[in-house]
Write a structure and sequence with these properties.
With 226 residues, the protein is an alpha/beta fold. Helices cover 32% and strands 19% of the residues. It contains seven helices and ten strands. The chain has a five-stranded parallel beta sheet with strand order 2-1-6-5-8. Strand 5, helix 3 and strand 6 form a beta-alpha-beta unit. Helix 3 packs across helix 5. It is elongated, with a radius of gyration of 22 Å.
Amino acid sequence: MSFRATILTLYPDMFPGHLGQSLSGKALERGQWSLDTVQIRDFAEDKHRTVDDTPAGGGAGMVLRADILAKAIDHASDGGDRPRLLMSPRGKPLTQERVRELAAGPGAIIVCGRFEGVDQRVIDSRQLEEVSIGDYILSGGEPAALILLDAIVRILPGVMGNDLSGVHESFEGGLLEHPHYTRPQVFEGQEIPAVLTSGHHGDIAKWREAEARRLTAERRPDLLRK
């Protein structure tokens, strides 16, 4: 069973984007995962294919209509059990744990919001899980959906050449990743730490653990508190 992603968007040409390149692109060609897009505007009923309207209660911007988006979601759902995600800055922060949960499933239906937001009634009625990739605002949900899929696809079985590459990384063990070095031995007067060329695997493992904890304490102490 391959991972199947369906993207609901007003800009389908933004996909697969960078996911059509490198390892994810090769995996897409091999059928290890699939991607299809649904144009939300196709479900509008007026001649102008209008998908938004002014916010109830007044205010700036426009809101994506519940009735139109609901039709698009129902069309994409096809009776399966794929989770329905809405990329949203007010959503629950995306974690590596959640990425692994999604990667282990059959795929996802991902809604890319635009304008001021999405009518709350379609979020409630279609049980959309709001997902945030960070505390900042984008012009729409498409870049966020690409980031989410990037995180998922790279850990699908067989996508990375060395499956251990997905294990010894930042966040996998609750810590940031340790520093990395490679040749040349000396760069602008800086040498590779001697322990890494000692050949003593136990000492190397201890050094990497200590460095990971040091970096995490400096940059993300909240991870240590968890």
